[in-house]
Amino acid sequence: MKDNNVFRGDNKRIIAIANQKGGVGKSTTAVNLTAYLGYYGYKTLIVDMDPQSNSTSGLGFESGSDRKSIYNILISGESINDITCKTDFSNLFIIPSSIQLAGAEVELVTSMKREYRLKEAIGKINELYDYIIIDCPPALGLLTINALSAAGEVIIPIQCEYYALEGLGQLLNTIKLVRENLNPELEIAGALMTMFDPRIKLSEQVLSEVKKYFSSKVYNTIIPRNVRLSEAPSYGKPILFYDPDCKGALAYKDFTKEVIENGSKRTG
Ligand SMILES: Nc1ncnc2c1ncn2[C@@H]1O[C@H](COP(=O)(O)OP(=O)(O)OP(=O)(O)O)[C@@H](O)[C@H]1O
Ligand SMILES: [Mg+2]
User: Fold this and answer.
1) Which ligand is nearest to the CA of 138?
2) Which atom of ligand 1 is nearest to the CA of 50?
3) Where are the alpha helices (DSSP H) in the chain?
């Protein structure tokens, strides 16, 4: 099933998918990007840092609270290897989330090196994977800070809607602060426009505003609003294994190629 036209990019990339705004497509992007990275032969790990556990359930794992999760790594210091699970999809592994993680924001506050818990855990295993993709919760608290401290890059999904740019200043400021204080390596890989509906004139307007805001750092691929993308998680499958020919699938496939190609440009 491999597509040999894809440029083999830079290995060992850690990418956070972040936007504190809820429902903009972070988990949909994390699940489908990782599935296509696996499909293209890259050994990939998805880390679910959101107590809502949407990427965990979207990959067919029950999000019941008794299963061990990223919580046990961040708070109890358990071994990352013991918590990592293989998914049913090729080359794709997961560190699942659970509702317990909701308490982690508060529990982390008093812990040592609280911003680096994820970075330290990932540091023990990052040589095993080509890509590590971190799905962030819709907040700029310690869970997202842990993700941004561990990552080399951040992808920002932006929903094509009227208030799309609202809150972006706050997000970019947080990224700047993380870069200055915690992780000088962090780069914005790009903004990804999601849920684009060509019938809505507004979408075009939002797109041009986002392009102005991020200049060249907007992915060429635009993810359309596509009902198949919203159905797939209830079957516990990435779109590639649910409806690989639908518009949403083709868009996430193109987006994944862009991510891979941009990585190889970054390293020359
Ligand atoms: N391109 C799309 N077309 C149609 N529906 C979509 C699309 N992308 C995401 N959705 C749906 O929109 C909802 C929000 O998407 P998603 O969960 O990916 O956003 P999120 O940013 O992770 O949300 P949260 O901030 O709550 O974590 C979900 O029901 C998802 O299935
Ligand atoms: Mg989510």
Assistant:
1) 1
2) 27
3) 26-39, 54-58, 70-74, 80-83, 104-109, 117-123, 142-150, 168-181, 201-214, 227-231, 247-266
